[in-house]
Structures are given as C-alpha cells and as structure tokens.
Amino acid sequence: MIFFLFAFLVIKVTSAQTVTFENFNGYFDSNAVNYFKGTPGVPGDYIYHEIFASFALRNDTSAFGDYWSGWAISRLKDSISIAYDTNDCAAFPAVLSSTYATAYQSIDSYYNRIRFDMPIMLDGVSITNSTIAYRSMQNGDFVAKKFGGVSGNDSDYFRIIFKGWENGILKPDSVLFYLADFRDPNNANDYIVKYWEYVNLQTLGVVDSIYYYLESSDNGPFGMNTPAYFCIDNLVDNPESVKDISLSSNISIFPNPFSEELTFCNKSEEIVEISVMDFEGRNLIEMNLIKNQQHKLQTSSWSQGMYFIKVKSQKGEYFKKIVK
After folding, report:
1. pLDDT value at residue 26
2. What is the value of pTM for the model shown?
C-alpha cells in the first residue's frame, strides 16, 4: 500500500525555494506525536512531497515489531540520552527549524533517494547526526565501536556520499560529507558533528533525483556497524541554473489527477516532443505532437502514483507533475 502526504504543489520554479518539512506539523499534532515513521502495525510505503521534492518511507511489520527505512519526519531533539534509550528519529543538536527529516539507510536504494518534480540544480542542505549515531560513535555500543578506539588513535570515520541522477543516468560527480572524522594524526582535530552543517550540493549539477549512501570505518560480517542514521533540514534549490522557458500556455495536459485516459493538446505553431516518466525517472512514453494536434493515451494499466511530463520544443522545455 502506498500513502501520499502532500504539503503543496509548485510546478514552475522562478526563485529559490526551501524544503523545510514545516508543512507536516499539523499531521504530528493530529496524532499527538513528534515524529512520523509510518503507521504502527500498518505495512506500506509513504511518499512525502513538499514544494519540489519527494521522499519515500517504508514501514514493515513482524512478530518483533515495526521496522522502518527511508525518510521519517521529526521534531525531536535529544542531546541527553546516552545510547539506544532515545527515539531513533531524534536529532542530536537543537533543531534548525521545528521539523526536519531523519534518514535511515535502506537495503533498497529506492528509499535512499530524493526525487524532484523537474530537473534542477540544488544549492545545498543542512545535515547533522542523529542522537543514536552520535552516542554510538562517542561511546560505542553492543555492536559498534567507540570511535578512536581505546587509545584514541584509530582512524575512524562516518560519511555520506551524495550522487545525482538525470534522465535515468548516474552522473559522475559526487559530494562527500563527514559526520565524524578521526583520521587526522592530531587527535585534537577529531570530531563528531553535533551542530547543523550546511553542505553545498551544486557540484552535482542539474539532477532529477539524488541518492545517498553511508560509509564507516567500523564494519562487520553483516555490513556497517555504525547506526545508519542522519538528519537533514532546509533543502535549497538554485533555480537560476535551470532553463525555464514556459510552453505551458500552448500545451494542455488533462485531467490531473487522471485515471483511465490522459489527453495531450498542442495549441502551438510548432512540433513539440513529449516524454512521460515514472517516479523512478524511467521513460514510459516518447512522442511528437504537430501543431494543433490532440492525442489521447490509455492509462488504465498504469500504477497509481506520480508521473512527470517533459515538454520540449525549439524554444525550450518545461516540466509538469501529474498524479494517478
């Protein structure tokens, strides 16, 4: 089952915008909690959408309880708890704004991505450690080691690598950020991030999604021992980097939301190229519309969810999000 939680929708970006996660505060209040990582006892996928970005959360259930991965929404802060006696959605420092997102790395990379309504260049995002990851690295726990080891000289690290995708192609550049770094020979320079740090993502270029993966110096037979959590807030785009030539007044795409059928109408005086992409960025349909042409697509077999339409002509291109 897939649940969609939309804050609001913006199709055309003309100035810098920031995903703050603040628009989900009402959802917390209605459930009398300060975090959301899925409905207890209800397995399924949840999709958060705010302004230009979408985040996926997976909640699974078993005899041992619920298990989540992907992106949770939280307004918890906890710099007091020692280890696993805190909520796994809590950020270590005081929150940058009242609400933020906590990532828990999934074995399925689908949930480790952030997807955008249109190709954009990002400016950056604020990042910090979760309380559980911070205390684990600071003190060690029943699985993970204390960073630096007994002597304090171990060259430990915990880092995030961000990569970008565009049109289903993995881009070559990456952004690396250390959540903890004990590699310097001078132990006085060792650190575990305990404040919000702004990470510049512009070097990823124009992307329609980004994904992350975590790496640690502390690994065991089943993978990374360091708890695979971190927190983000204030994801900022850089719209001046993206060509924004509107064709929307001459191209009609309806209805939205759609069900059995989707209609495209070209009222311009030129040929336009139409591409339909699914939530993963895979091309489903590519076609050309000549001037004053109307075309109907049968969509009854399409899965429910979000789709992205790319409309391109000699004058430029624009993007539109539609929902089934």
Report:
1. 62
2. 0.72
